[in-house]
Design a protein that fits this description.
The protein is mainly α and 143 residues long. It has 2 domains: 59 residues; 64 residues, no CATH class. Helix content is 59%, strand content 0%. The protein is rod-shaped, with a radius of gyration of 26 Å.
């Protein structure tokens, strides 16, 4: 008689193409791993650890694609000159600009206004015109 060894642990989970597509779509729209696991409840009962172990590359790739698409859209909106809010948001998040920069500059603590070359000065109080001028400066456009 041969001794049959008992398999220890849970049975191997096989994921269908449909399961993979659900996971990819969920990752692409920004769902957290915990929420993806809940989404799969009833279809596949898995843990976050199992999800990561089997799909880390897919999760990373799809989330990267989503971030790229969002940043590409934000960049287009911010540089169009038509969306002041997007321009300001991009300046703050992508360029690290915040209100304290303006306060320090206006107080004269950082630079003297005479140190700024004329082609870099933004000489308007209109926010839309100022954002257009800022975009021109950042692009290197000269008018």
């Amino acid at each position: 008689m041969e001794d049959k060894k008992k398999k220890i642990g849970r049975p191997t989970i096989v994921f269908s193409d449909e399961n993979r597509q659900i996971i990819a779509n969920a990752a692409r729209i920004g769902m957290r791993n915990e929420d993806i696991v809940l989404l799969l409840q009833g279809v596949k009962d898995i843990s976050v650890k199992t999800l990561k172990r089997n799909f880390q590359e897919l999760l990373t790739e799809e989330r990267g694609k989503a971030k790229y698409a969002i940043l590409k859209t934000l960049y287009k909106m911010a540089t169009s000159g038509q969306n002041t809010a997007a321009t300001i948001f991009a300046a703050k998040t992508m360029c690290g600009i915040n209100e304290s920069h303006y306060e320090k500059i206006s107080e004269g603590n950082i630079i003297d206004e005479s140190d700024i070359s004329d082609d870099l000065k933004i000489d308007t109080k209109d926010p839309l015109e100022a954002s257009k001028k800022y975009i021109e400066i950042m692009r290197g456009d000269k008018k």
